[in-house]
Amino acid sequence: MLYFAQGSETTDLSPEDIKKALFETFDKLGQKKKVLAIPPDFTRYHSRAGYLTTLAYEYYRNALTDILPALGTHALMTAEELHKMFPGIPLSLFREHKWRTDITTLGTVPADYIYEISEQRVNYSWPAQVNKMLVNGGYDLILSPGQVVPHEVIGMANYNKNIFVGTGGAEGINKSHFLGAAYGIERILGRPDTPVRKVLNYASDNFARHLPILYLLTVVAKDENGKLKVRGLYIGDDHECYLQAAALSLKVNFIMLEKPLKKVVVYLDPEEFKSTWLGNKSVYRTRMAIEDKGELVVLAPGLKEFGEDKQIDALIRKYGYLTTPEILKLTNEQPELQNNLSAAAHLIHGSAEDRFTITYCPGKVTEEEIRSVNFNYAPLAEMMQRYNPEKLKDGYNTMDDGEEIFYISNPAIGLWASRERFKD
User: Fold this and answer.
1) Is 52 helix (H, G, I), strand (E, B) or coil?
2) pTM
3) 228-242 pLDDT per residue, tens
4) Residues 79 and 18 in one domain
């Protein structure tokens, strides 16, 4: 059921608008005795999911007994991050999702179904795994707030991805990521209906109907002055909620360019992007915009590691970002990649496929480390002086010496593509 739907390319929902919509929806649902909230983690700080969660706490108070950030494979949120994203909520309410241990399997999507929808690229079954709290916690309402935005693994982020990946287990996360990579990142980015989404929808329809999940989905985009605006809010418990949010996100988060770009400069906020596991959104979201032999420059002052998970970090360091055929071959040969398919998928996603160059400018990783994973390197201080984020504007910029670049201040909130590379 769709409880609330409002949004357009010019909508600007205020905090008061959001609060009114949320509280009216909660009133319709009636009294709840035990509520669980599953917001995204700090890597989705701009989603407004933190605000939605604080509103839920304001409304339900003692009935909101647990908050389980949907970490997936991400690092545990710090106390500082929790206070910033969820102001006013006691830290005692937050629980840690342990993706390798604290999970239960609701059911299994059959291999023949996945083989068919992947166009014969993968042939395995998929376990619909969630954190055991969802099943054993005795909740009469599970809130899943988050932002719908173009995404490299599933096409459009959030909705039931927040459940089956955000609170999922190792096998489910690994296999879903690899399915998306094997199908092709450029065939998935910005598409609401993809093989990965089909698998998650299958799980929702067949294994999770008994879970009282309510989705609170935002669509957030920058206005002409570079300020983030909530362009849409969709609240519901079925696919329609997601589909309407995805349709709007494609209008406001997807930038279609008339011609490919020669040089793209992306800035990674040091509070949000501390690893290439996250920072490679600079690669994913711009790859369809960059011309052959072009260059992507990534200003990454907070970069301190490759993978947030130690095992994944070790695999990235060992194999590096190679072309799809090379990673697929290694995955067939190496048990450690077969046992960590999300790492294999990430290595595929982070590759330029020898089509353009990627130059990382890290704050806390050495030149040797950057080059060892097959990225180019440039000194951060030197490049920050040349491409000063405080002086650049999102979009086209002409430098003092005449060089033309395309600047992106936050790759996580959009998708950029040239018409010739984006095929419907």
Assistant:
1) helix
2) 0.90
3) 999 999 999 999 999
4) yes
